[in-house]
Write a structure and sequence with these properties.
The longest helix has 18 residues. This protein is 27% helix and 25% strand. The chain has 3 domains: 75 residues, OB fold (Dihydrolipoamide Acetyltransferase, E2P); 42 residues, Dihydrolipoamide Transferase (Irregular), CATH 4.10.320.10; 212 residues, Chloramphenicol acetyltransferase-like domain (Chloramphenicol Acetyltransferase, 2-Layer Sandwich), CATH 3.30.559. β13 and β14 form a beta hairpin. Strands 9, 12, 15, 16, 17, 18 and 19 form a 7-stranded mixed β-sheet that branches. A 4-stranded antiparallel β-sheet has the order 1-8-6-3, with no helix packed on it. Strands 5-4-2-7 form a 4-stranded antiparallel β-sheet, with no helix packed on it. It is of the alpha+beta class. It contains 10 helices and 19 strands.
Length: 403
């Protein structure tokens, strides 16, 4: 019996996926539930497991965009398993699209071509490209408008013995979707960024005193993210416009705080969501951050775990960023950027002392959030981080840390 394996729906509103990588070869014997492919949607990369055991016949190529419900492979369930063999190990490394090497000496090659169309000439002139260097695809070698649009300017002549090769590979569906979303945010929102600085010494002192006991009791570290999440939840409750979104002509406000956190995964940036962060303790936040980060790292994060979110926190400081203007995660209206912590001179009680300082940035959509709310929100975050014992722990540190 031949089983037709179809692309399952990875989530609501997703109608198409891309075959990112086949983890098996055509004609392999596969076991039921064995991962056979990685598929990219516009939100996540997911594994496709074999529905039954048998010999597999692939019906799609890597890089193909296929609709949800389309047949991507056949499994011959009557085929005998080869004696003394086991199912091939899953090739977890994603196969990249073949790189196209462009030899340096060929980039400046002049082709014998026909003339260029008027539209093509205009586009090539804007790019500073000589039409005679383009291989036309039109009749008699004529350079078409499409040829001109696809033409890439020469990078200049190579120096003697210099290596000036280049390579090209198709962006994943996830990366293409991220690019589209980021451009749309810039074009469709009135995005502004406000900045402040935070003296991290009080948090440093708390972590130095309690982090070892906290980790030994709860099995997770007492990191900065729990302090920032708790400070953000408090500020969102004080300034509800920052916890709102635009839906056409309406403002949608939420009485809960679902905090998206940007984490680095094998396919790039992922933004899983901490649900109902206002209900979580320090231990709860740290446990959830660890769980989501591990799932993102291992490629197991689901679409549901990245859907929603009313506010985002991103930490460029782990990569060494001192300051940035983070881009809003649509359809949210604001995002907080954390940065690296640097010892800086600071005036404290009339004296200059060295303190660990972090610059923080709040990007927000000015269509729905006014300057008063944005600045007030960021000041509230700063105040909570600089006085965590009173404002985040209700003056009972051991109770707040469940010690």
């Amino acid at each position: 019996m031949i089983l037709e394996m179809k692309v399952p729906s990875p989530g609501e509103s997703i109608t198409e996926v891309e075959i990112a990588a086949w983890l098996v070869e055509d004609g392999d014997y596969v076991e039921k539930d064995q991962p056979i492919a990685e598929v990219d949607s516009d939100k996540a990369t997911l594994e496709l497991p074999a529905e039954e055991s048998g010999v597999i016949t692939l019906k799609a190529e890597e890089g193909d965009a296929v609709e949800v419900g389309a047949v991507v492979c056949l499994i011959d369930m009557d085929a005998a398993k080869p004696e003394g063999s086991t199912a091939p190990a899953s090739k977890k490394e994603v196969k990249e699209a073949p790189a196209v090497e462009v030899p340096a000496k060929e980039t400046a090659q002049t082709y014998a071509t026909g003339s260029a169309s008027p539209a093509a000439k205009k586009i090539l002139a804007e790019k500073g490209i000589d039409a005679t260097t383009i291989q036309g695809t039109g009749k008699d070698g004529r350079v078409t408008k499409d040829d001109a649009v696809k033409a890439v300017p020469s990078m200049g002549s190579a120096a003697d013995g210099a290596n000036r090769g280049s390579s090209s590979k198709k962006l994943s569906m996830l990366r293409r979707k991220v690019a589209q979303r980021l451009v749309s945010v810039k074009n469709e929102t009135a995005m502004l960024t406000t900045f402040n600085e935070v003296n991290m010494q009080p948090i440093f002192d708390l972590r130095a005193q309690y982090k070892e006991d906290f980790k030994s009791k709860h099995g997770v570290g007492l990191g900065f993210m729990s302090f920032f999440t708790k400070a953000v939840v408090r500020a969102l409750q004080m300034y509800p416009d920052v916890n709102s979104m635009i839906d056409g002509d309406y403002k949608v406000s939420y009485d809960f705080q679902d905090i998206s956190i940007a984490v680095s995964g094998p396919k790039g940036l992922m933004v899983p969501v901490i649900r109902n962060a206002e209900e979580l303790t320090f231990r709860g936040v740290e446990s959830e951050v660890k769980r989501l980060a591990i799932r993102a790292r291992d490629g197991q994060i689901t679409v549901d775990e990245m859907t929603g979110g009313t506010f985002t926190i991103t930490n460029g400081g782990v990569f060494g960023s001192m300051l940035s203007t983070p881009i809003i995660n649509p359809p949210q209206s604001a995002i907080l950027g954390m940065h690296n912590i640097v010892n800086r001179p600071m005036a404290v009680n009339g004296e200059v002392v060295i303190q660990p300082i972090m610059y923080v940035a709040l990007s927000y959509d000015h269509r729905i959030i006014d300057g008063k709310e944005s600045v007030g929100f960021l000041v509230a975050v700063k105040e909570a981080l600089e006085n965590p014992t009173e404002l985040l722990m209700d003056n009972d540190i051991k109770k707040a840390l469940e010690m």
